[in-house]
Amino acid sequence: MNPLIFNKLELIIKTQNRIDTAKLVDLGISLNSYIKKIQEREKTRVRFCTFEHGSSQRDEINSPEFLIEPIIPKKGFVIISGETGNYKTFTSINLGLCLSSGKDFLGFKVKDKSNVLYIDEENNCSIIKDRQDAIEKGLNIEVDNFFPMSEQSFNFSNEDDFKSLEYLIESKKINVVIVDSLPATTEFSENQNTGMNLLYRTKIKSLMKKYNLTWVLIHHFKKGTMNSFKPEILLDQLRGNSLLKYFLDNAICIAKKNDGEFYFIPCKTRSSSLPKPKLIKIKIQNNLSKEDKLLDSVTFEDCGESDITCDVYTRCSKVILQVCKENNITKFSTSKKNENNILDVVESRYKFSQNTCYKAIRILLKEKKIERPDNNSNGEYLII
Questions:
Q1: What is the mean predicted confidence (pLDDT) over 340-366?
Q2: Cα separation of 362 and 284, whole Å?
Q3: Among 241, 275, 307, which residue terminates a domain?
Q4: Same-domain check for residues 270 and 126
């Protein structure tokens, strides 16, 4: 069968041109058989499909699987975000080691062990190895399926890097890829919608579908974000363009409370009710005997669900005092008509609501850090 004749017939049929069937008979060709073959070829070119009622595809959509329910989905895209110094790297390494070993992660059950690739372009190899060993000691585990990678200058935008990454995923049978951090592994500006769109659709999603991968990317918040702990507000404060939050399956915020304490705040989930925030205590034990290791052990303690609302009022009260100190203010007012009103500054710059500011002032009064003058008709307060 001559391929040239086949291709010509295909073109004629596609363009709906007329053809003399007698000529086909002369060539010993059955028009119907050619049409059937062309139709079969076209079927293989179809890129899109629908999910029929009762099909297995619909069941998969309605019943998602989890590696850690309900915070880390199988074959999903997750971001862990927070400000600098909020224990994001410690938490992400701990997450990887718990997924590798099957140990509980901050009180959440790990369903199955996974092979984890950990890419870090913010810290050097010795720091990552030191933290891995210390966290392993704290968990009382030893794993051989956690693969850290650092100081490789990995970049999603580099095609050679991406091919090498795919080879690594395939050869190591990787289930989870953790990347620290998103800004350190991309060339485009965080505010470019085109760059973020291409990264997700051509890189993250393509490997996710091909290898059933779960992606966990470490990211940063805009400055001043942590003055509000509401999940819907935190999600809007991810650094970079607004497309990112729509691509996510799950999002988690790490918010430092004090040294050795942080809040673990789920901000988004596609497939279940949003878990409540938790208070986590992290104990970092320094190594005093070996010069080549900075850390001896790192442990995480799940202190249970936490009401973070009260802490927001405390943080707001500290900001009010900070603003007064920075501007040499000894007396301020809550009245909109008064020139000493600082609430506008606190609300606009630090994103606190007016209601939060008033509750913060009550805390300051109770702690006797401010006081009302005898004549307080204008809502004035004195710094003590």
A1: 83
A2: 35
A3: 307
A4: yes
Instruction: Write the pLDDT tens digit of every residue in 89-121.
Output: 999 999 999 999 999 999 999 999 999 999 999
By DSSP bridging, strand 278-286 and strand 295-305 are antiparallel
- Helices 125-139, 88-101: crossing angle, 10 deg rounding: 60
Q: Is residue 236 part of a domain?
A: yes
pLDDT for the residue 380: 85
Alpha-carbon torsion 200, 202, 204, 206, what sign?
A: positive
Q: How many residues does the chain have?
A: 384
Binned at pLDDT 50, 70 and 90, residue 258 comes out as confident
Question: Could you tell me the residue range of the domain that residue 299 belongs to?
Answer: 66-307
Give yes or no: residues 364 and 291 share one domain.
no
Residue 289 maps to a domain: yes
What does the mean pLDDT of the chain come to?
Answer: 82
Split into its structural domains, the chain has a count of: 3
Distance CA 331, CA 342 (A): 10
Measured in whole angstroms, the distance separating CA 267 from the mean position of its chain's CA atoms is 10
At what angle are helices 343-350 and 309-326 packed, to 10 degrees? Answer: 120
Tell me: do 337 and 240 sit in the same domain: no
d(CA 123, CA 295): 15
Residues 6+ apart with CB under 8 A from 67: 73, 74, 99, 110, 111, 112, 114, 175, 176, 214
Examine the domain organization and report whether 107 and 157 are in the same domain. yes
pLDDT at residue number 87? 94
Return the CATH number at 376. Answer: 1.10.10.10
Q: Which residue has the higher pLDDT, 159 or 3?
A: 159
E strand or H helix at 383, and its extent? strand 380-383
Helix (H, G, I), strand (E, B) or coil at 382: strand
Helix (H, G, I), strand (E, B) or coil at 43: helix
CB 125 within 8 A of CB 183: no
Per-residue pLDDT at 136 exceeds 70: yes
Instruction: Confirm whether 184 is domain-assigned.
Output: yes
Cβ–Cβ under 8 Å, residues 116 and 175 = yes
Q: What is the DSSP string of 310-334?
A: HHHHHHHHHHHHHHHHHTT-SEEE-
CATH of the domain at 101: 3.40.50.300
